[in-house]
Amino acid sequence: MGFFGTxxxxxxxxxxxxxxxxxxxxxxxxAEVIANAKGLAIFSGIRAAMWVGGTGGSGVIVARLxxxxxxxxSAFSVRSGGxxxxxxxxVYDCVCVLNTQEALDAYMKSETSLGAxxxxxxxxxxxxxxxxxxxxKPVWTYTKSRGLYGGLTVDGTVLSEKxxxxxxxxxxxxxxxxxxxxxxxxxxxKQLPEVLxxxxxxxxxxxxxxxxxxxxxxxxxxx
Length: 223
Description:
By secondary structure, this protein is α+β, with helices and mostly antiparallel strands. The protein contains seven helices and nine strands, in the order H-H-E-E-E-E-H-E-E-E-E-E-H-H-H-H. The protein has helices spanning 9-25, 31-35, 101-107, 163-170, 176-180, 191-199, 206-210, and strands spanning 39-48, 55-63, 74-80, 89-98, 111-113, 120-122, 139-145, 148-149, 158-161. This is Ysc84 actin-binding domain-containing protein. GO terms for molecular function: phosphatidylinositol binding.
């Protein structure tokens, strides 16, 4: 599976499932955070020192629908020249929790920048954390690189809709906005829907969860 870009939405979804599960298994994202989210952007990326050429990557976005279910996923690519200060090349995983409708609306566009018009901050951690007293920002981020959680600044990261991938999955003319509004059917992928269930502490199909790759995600890879 290619973690940094694929032309297949099913592979992007399986990759996103593996990344999200890796955060859940370490109890880094509270179930209450996911249950109250308006949307999730899940992706992996590669960042390099400025003289090497910035960053890249890919992932998917899902949105909360009016009935409480999740929308089908919309694929996107990642690029930026300003993610932190690094030496050499590094890889990372990121889950962005969209807490407001305004933040979600920004992700329904063909291109958006993390932090543009919406405050982002590191999200609360702990599998059973109480968020009722938290200062809820429009976007909470969860990151890991080389097995270490947090500490990675993603401000300025640009997410662009992968129209070619979405077109192959949903048909011509189906935009990210339509996908995230639930106007299309879920693609034939099983892992991501089941991981979204366990992220909210709901029952899920154990056989599907057992089929998720146990290989390290990019953010867990060491030198």
